[in-house]
Design a protein that fits this description.
- The structure is a single chain.
- With 348 residues, this protein is of the alpha+beta class.
- The chain is 24% helix and 36% strand.
- Strands 6-7-8-3-9-10 form a six-stranded mixed β-sheet, sandwiched between helices. Strands 13-12-11-14-20 form a five-stranded antiparallel β-sheet. A five-stranded antiparallel β-sheet has the order 15-19-16-17-18, with no helix packed on it.
- Helix 2 crosses helix 3.
- The longest helix is centred in the middle third of the chain and has 18 residues, at 168-185.
Length: 348
């Protein structure tokens, strides 16, 4: 089992009267690619800044290999940060931008040259040493920012939405390159994004946040297939979320009929939320389904069709590779292990 490299224990952060983080406990393992995922204002960047030493927690402590670094200034921490805006120096060429941190440390020039050339090769920009920053594309600038951070050989690289400014095609290419870099270098990456697909594609561990609280932490597969609550289910991919009644263990009622499920421990005749992923609903002939409905719309999404089916006053979203005709009466079939039961959240 990998050892914990970074730990946040009971960390809270207040900005004036706003509580940005609430009692955060977070462990980051050595050589892990961990992603902090959530909507704007959820506290993910605040965690990154606290790890980097740019923010001080109101409560709680930060540990690096069991050593308390809460009061340690940023330049003494074994971490480097890649910011969303890259923060490259426009008056320096590519070589000097990458070498900046090494020059500050007064590393000898031959060593600097070797390290800079290695980083340029790593980010596929060999031969760009003398180029100006303004002459580079957004993707190239992003790679230089990563090279500048990695050349200092940090044990942890903090990345604050570094792909946000790139177009979709380049962003997808850079997702693969970043993951390959992390694996080949064996460096711990702590990555911040609000892009669900990006988090699921790149991460060993995903930490889903909302309102300064960790909602769920786990592998991408666990987060997607077994969400802890309605927020996680709704935020990570599309979901059908409908009111239901847990009649008893393994039996739930929604949409006017009873369904066998695989969940237990919710009590009897309890209001619950039902979560079903669109790809887990099968469209069948009208008389062969558990529910009956009418196709309201069909949208081509590239790799599948998104079909909306109205049934019992609820509009179900279905993802399928088979096209349907709008207005057709159809059946909907759902397997027991694709019905996810959630506790009703307070106030909902």
């Amino acid at each position: 089992m990998k050892q914990n490299l970074l730990e946040l224990k009971d960390v809270s952060k207040l900005f004036d009267t706003t509580e940005a983080l609430k009692d955060i406990d977070l462990n980051v393992k050595k050589n892990e690619f961990i992603t902090l995922l959530g909507p704007s204002g959820c506290g993910k960047t605040t965690i990154l800044r606290i790890i980097g030493g740019f923010e001080y927690p109101t409560n709680g402590r930060v540990y690096f290999e069991d050593i308390d670094i809460t009061d340690m200034p940023p330049y003494k921490r074994r971490v480097n940060t890649v910011f969303q805006r890259y923060s490259l120096f426009p008056h320096m060429d590519v070589y000097d931008n990458i070498a900046f941190g090494l020059n500050i440390k007064k590393v000898n020039k031959n060593t600097i040259k070797t390290k800079v050339e290695k980083m340029l090769d790593l980010v596929n920009l060999s031969g760009f040493e003398n180029r100006t920053i303004d002459s580079l594309s957004g993707g190239q600038q992003q790679r230089i920012a990563i090279a500048r951070a990695l050349v200092n050989e940090p044990e942890v690289l903090l990345l604050d939405e570094p792909l946000a400014a790139l177009d979709l095609k380049l962003r997808k290419e850079m997702q693969v390159e970043l993951k390959n870099m992390q694996q080949s270098l064996g460096i711990t990456f702590v990555y911040v994004t609000h892009d669900q697909e990006e988090a699921l594609t790149m991460s060993d561990t995903v930490v889903v946040m909302n309102h300064g609280v960790i909602q769920q932490m786990g592998s991408p597969e666990d987060i997607y297939n077994e969400p802890n609550n309605v927020f996680v289910a709704d935020f990570i991919g599309a979901s059908n979320i409908i009111d239901g009644i847990m009649i008893q263990d393994l039996l739930v009622e929604f949409s006017g009929r009873e369904f066998i499920c695989v969940d237990k421990g919710f009590g009897e005749n309890r209001p619950v939320d039902i979560v079903i992923r669109p790809e887990d609903i099968k469209i069948v002939d009208k008389d062969a389904g558990m529910l009956e409905g009418i196709v309201k719309s069909v949208t081509f999404k590239g790799v599948h069709y998104e079909i909306l089916v109205e049934s019992q006053g609820y509009t179900w979203m279905v993802h399928t590779t088979l096209i349907e005709e709008v207005g057709r009466k159809v059946g909907l079939s759902i397997f027991p292990d694709d019905i996810h039961i959630m506790e009703k959240e307070e106030g909902l």
